[in-house]
Amino acid sequence: MTKPRIIAIVNQKGGVGKTTTTINLAAALTLRGKKVLLIDLDPQGNAATGLGIPRTARDVTVYDVLVESRPISDAIMDTVVPGLKLVPSHIDLASAELEIGDRAGRTTILRHALSRVDFDYVLIDCPPSLNLLTVNALSAARSVLVPLQCEFFALEGLSQLLQTVEMAKANINSDLVIDGVMLTMYDQRNRLSAQVAADVRKHLGRAVFKTVIPRNVRIAEAPSFGKPVIMYDPDCAGSKAYIDLADEMLGRHSKSRK
Question: What domains appear along the chain, each with residue ranges and CATH number?
């Protein structure tokens, strides 16, 4: 059985391209021949929509896994991307924190659920908050990927997020590392985007991926067609950027194993 590399895609700020990144990075890794499972931990459930799965088809969800102790294999679904699997979310997940809050081992439920899955990569789309769901993701993950929007308040809140990651490493997951920070919604016509990118690279150095995800209308359109952008328009700038990101990530992981 393959031991997967589990990556939590985390940012407590909304609107930074987190779900979009999770969908498209998962699709790009699949395109590169990797067995990929996407876990949607956001109660909004947008990852399934972006992968062509209607709400009426989501019979067993991550809520059932976390709260009702269903085997995660019961919740794994096919997606519009051949080979890419998904554990969908449900709006009931919004109450999960209350329902499991007093349970022993509440921070490691997802880790145990994922202990027997057979994939190369598991990507976890976290909710836009640092709550118990996110802590479960950090407990299960080997690394953290942080999407960061190229706008004025980009660095605001990042220090809090990095502190949360360090707390998770100290208390529940000593193996956790920062995979990297990736810049999203970059507008090359906008001097502010260039300035934000420069500031982030100055502060975080090699932790920032070289690949930058541009602000691209095709990326924004793709979810309404139930497809990742690399299927919706393979030749657009957004598709090429996410494929480059997958290649850069695979390169980093290959070097880390040597």
Answer: 5-256 (3.40.50.300)
Write the CB contacts of 56 (distance below 8 Å, at least 6 apart in sequence).
none
Describe the crossing of helices 18-31 and 237-256 by its angle, rounded to 10 degrees: 70
Q: What is the pTM of this model?
A: 0.94
Which residues, at least 6 apart from 170, have a Cβ–Cβ distance to it below 8 Å? none
Number of H helices, E strands in the chain: 11, 8
In the chain, the N- to C-terminal Cα span, in Å, equals 21
Alpha-carbon distances, residue 74 vs 65, 77, 210, 246 (angstroms): 9, 8, 38, 28
Report pLDDT digits (tens) over 114-128: 998 999 999 999 998
Residue pair 243/217 in contact by the 8 Å Cβ criterion: no
Q: For 2-37, what is the HEC assignment?
A: CCCEEEEECCCCCCCCHHHHHHHHHHHHHHCCCCEE
Q: What is the CA radius of gyration of the chain?
A: 17
Q: Hey, which bits of the chain come out as E strands?
A: 5-9, 36-40, 77-78, 84-87, 121-125, 143-149, 177-186, 208-214
For residue 183, give the 3-state DSSP assignment: strand
The tens digit of pLDDT for each residue in 16-37 reads 889 999 999 999 999 999 999 9
- Residue 208 pairs in a beta bridge with 181
What is the Cβ-side half-sphere exposure of residue 222, based on CA atoms within 13 angstroms?
26
pLDDT score, position 258: 54
> Are 145 and 9 a contacting pair, CB within 8 Å?
yes
